[in-house]
Design goal:
mainly alpha; 5 helices; single chain
Length: 104
């Protein structure tokens, strides 16, 4: 992932980008935990809300893979289906961790 290009695309300086990334890492970790909990209990509404939050944060920063996966998960949950949700959440978390590891 080319973070320099992301910084340019977002129109931020390096310090601003690092601050935004810290917020993304913190809030997305919480949203991923909320997503996992919702899936475990079978709550499609909470699953959709958590996926929506992840989708928005990822989309705003240009993390398109996470955005697309979260979007698909949100859409399925809004249709009251959690089929494949656990696997999708695991893949989203893996992609998130790959990004977060670069900033820890």
């Amino acid at each position: 992932m080319n973070f320099k290009k992301l910084v340019e695309n977002l129109g931020l300086n390096d310090d601003e980008f690092l601050e935004v990334m810290e917020i993304f890492i913190r809030t997305t970790a919480s949203d991923l935990d909320r997503l996992q909990s919702a899936i475990v209990v079978g709550d499609t509404r909470q699953t959709a809300e958590a996926a929506h939050a992840i989708k928005g944060a990822a989309g705003n920063l240009g993390f398109n893979e996470i955005y697309e996966m979260a979007k698909a998960l949100e859409e399925k949950a809004r249709e009251n289906s959690l089929e494949g949700a656990a696997k999708s959440a695991k893949t989203i978390r893996k992609k998130y961790e790959e990004i977060a590891d670069k900033f820890r």
